[in-house]
């Protein structure tokens, strides 16, 4: 961890138009929660739908994409990453710092609003608010690591990330049950399931698979990103 | 160098004019229409990665291949079990994630590099106005999306004619779907290019376009689920229209009387005209935003 690098990264992510998207997505979640409250459907089933479809299924991967790639991809795109890499800071430390920044942003912009939306609708009922907030937190950590790695590996990180989030997790995961084992969303739901006690929510992946999967993916992606940064070349296409 | 060593002034000037062979362009000036057509064609080729690196071709052609898959499967199903696996009006609605990814991945390419490298004044020094530039980019994206929908539809139709199913061919449905694909293409192109033009960064542009699509589809999905669970079916029917693909589908249902492609249908009566008005409003808003954006960008 390097405080100066972290500070610069925070400024880069929060100081541009990127922050508009980071704010818009949780605002819509809170708006939907208020709307559900207004139409009087505050039963567990409606809230679980909101959490599964919107909070975990849409908002979390998008925020992960924006924050995860946003911490490093623009710098690589500009070539300004060279100023950072030429300083006597080890490259794995840079990768870990960028990952920590992205994960903390996701905790603020994804996990906290998820909890607030759940609490707004159900208070503490059935542990839904706390459960999905935990799921969003863990999922956010895993997404941060994966999208950071993508940002280091390829110039088309956002496009590939979109294909993963939309096509793999939604389409393939919806049609092929086995593919759900390899989806960060499903792991996040497994963690959410640990704290919830409602009949309307059954995670499909077991805890015994999700815990090692999250650990391996997160640590592996951050370490690999650090290694890739050591051999980064800026010969770009286009 | 000559100042460093004070030498006596030469008796006569030593300057030489070299003939470097500069020539004026004497050919015909093809004018604004031709420049517009050239920019449109260049942009359209670029959307599919033609004339760009091999890596830029992967994404559009993979997505094009995915769009063709249901047509191939459906032709096979018609030949083997004499049944349509995919109807024409449902094609674009079923394949909406693929179209959305294509739009998100390719529309920033059209606008972001020109903004980022500030080359807009170079375009505008030719007989092209700001509006022409915007129209060319929109036309290119709309044409690309139209190809992406119409080619599989037409393949499917040719397949149906060749397989010769019992009963008359679904020509009416085919032409309805083809007309609707024009609406899809124009709506998606306007919205996608307008969103992408607000940032000079390609990555953020991709994220912005896909975020808006996923937002719309998730909001629509959540509201439909909730309204149906408390049996307010009419509100649920309206909530479908938040997703742009179902919005266009509602227009298709209204104009051509095709069966709706969602569960539960669209609001009856005014639903169709309202959906059509919504489509036109989104197009008008996007074009206005683009023109404003480029008026500012052209002067910078």
Automatic annotation (TrEMBL), chain A:
GO MF assignments:
ABC-type transporter activity
Report the transmembrane regions from the record.
Answer: 19-39, 51-73, 93-122, 128-150, 157-176, 205-225
Q: Which residues form a coiled coil?
A: none
Q: Name one Pfam family in it.
A: ABC2_membrane_4
* Highest taxon in the source lineage: Bacteria
Q: Which GO terms describe its cellular component?
A: plasma membrane
Which keywords are on file for this protein? Membrane, Transmembrane, Transmembrane helix
Report what the protein is called: ABC transporter permease
From TrEMBL, chain B:
Q: Does the keyword Membrane apply?
A: yes
Task: Report TM segments.
Answer: 58-81, 93-112, 138-163, 175-198, 204-226, 269-292
* Superkingdom: Bacteria
Keyword Zinc in record = no
Q: What is the residue range of the signal peptide feature?
A: none
Q: Which UniProt keywords apply?
A: Membrane, Transmembrane, Transmembrane helix
The protein depicted here goes by the name: Membrane protein
């Amino acid at each position: 961890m390097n405080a100066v690098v972290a500070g610069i990264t925070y400024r880069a992510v929060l100081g541009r138009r990127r922050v508009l998207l980071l704010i818009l997505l949780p605002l819509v979640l809170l708006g939907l929660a208020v709307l559900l409250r207004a139409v009087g459907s505050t039963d567990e089933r409606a809230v679980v739908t909101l959490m599964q479809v919107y909070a975990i299924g849409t908002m979390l991967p998008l925020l992960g994409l924006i924050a995860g790639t946003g911490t490093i991809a623009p710098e690589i795109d500009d070539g300004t990453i060279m100023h950072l890499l030429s300083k006597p800071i080890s490259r794995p430390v840079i990768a870990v710092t960028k990952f920590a920044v992205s994960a903390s942003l996701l905790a603020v912009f994804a996990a906290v609003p998820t909890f607030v939306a759940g609490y707004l609708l159900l208070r503490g009922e059935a542990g839904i608010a706390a459960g999905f907030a935990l799921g969003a937190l863990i999922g956010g950590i895993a997404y941060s690591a994966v999208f950071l790695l993508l940002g280091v590996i390829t110039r088309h990180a956002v496009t590939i990330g979109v294909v993963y989030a939309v096509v793999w997790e939604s389409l393939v995961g919806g049609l092929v049950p086995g593919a759900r084992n390899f989806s960060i969303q499903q792991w996040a739901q497994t963690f959410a399931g640990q704290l919830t006690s409602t009949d309307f929510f059954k995670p499909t992946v077991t805890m015994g698979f999700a815990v090692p999967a999250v650990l391996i993916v997160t640590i592996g992606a951050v370490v690999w990103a650090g290694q890739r940064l050591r051999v980064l070349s800026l010969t770009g296409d286009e | 160098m000559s100042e460093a060593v004070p030498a006596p002034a030469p008796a006569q000037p030593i300057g030489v004019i070299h003939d470097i062979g500069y020539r004026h362009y004497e050919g015909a000036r093809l004018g604004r229409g031709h420049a517009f057509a050239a920019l449109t064609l260049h942009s359209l080729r670029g959307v599919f990665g033609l004339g760009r690196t091999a890596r830029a071709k992967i994404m559009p052609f993979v997505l094009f291949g995915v769009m063709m898959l249901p047509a191939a499967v459906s032709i096979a199903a018609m030949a083997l079990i004499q049944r349509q696996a995919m109807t024409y009006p449902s094609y674009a609605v079923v394949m909406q994630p693929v179209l959305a990814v294509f739009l998100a991945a390719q529309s920033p390419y059209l606008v972001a590099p020109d903004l980022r490298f500030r080359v807009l004044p170079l375009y505008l020094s030719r007989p092209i106005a700001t509006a022409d530039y915007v129209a060319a980019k929109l036309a290119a994206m709309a044409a690309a999306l139209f190809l992406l929908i119409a080619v599989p539809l037409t393949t499917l139709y040719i397949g149906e004619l060749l397989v010769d199913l019992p009963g008359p061919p679904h020509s009416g449905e085919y032409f309805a779907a083809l007309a609707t694909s024009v609406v899809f293409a124009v709506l998606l192109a306007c919205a996608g290019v307008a969103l992408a033009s607000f940032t000079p960064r390609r990555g953020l542009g991709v994220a912005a376009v896909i975020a808006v699509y996923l937002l719309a589809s998730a909001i629509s999905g959540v509201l439909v689920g909730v309204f149906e669970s408390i049996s307010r079916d009419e509100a649920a029917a309206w909530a479908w229209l938040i997703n742009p693909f179902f919005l266009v589908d509602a227009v298709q249902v209204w104009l051509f009387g095709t069966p709706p492609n969602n569960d539960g249908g669209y609001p009856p009566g005014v639903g169709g005209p309202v959906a059509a008005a919504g489509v036109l409003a989104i197009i008008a808003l996007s074009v206005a935003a683009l023109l404003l954006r480029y008026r500012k960008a052209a002067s910078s």
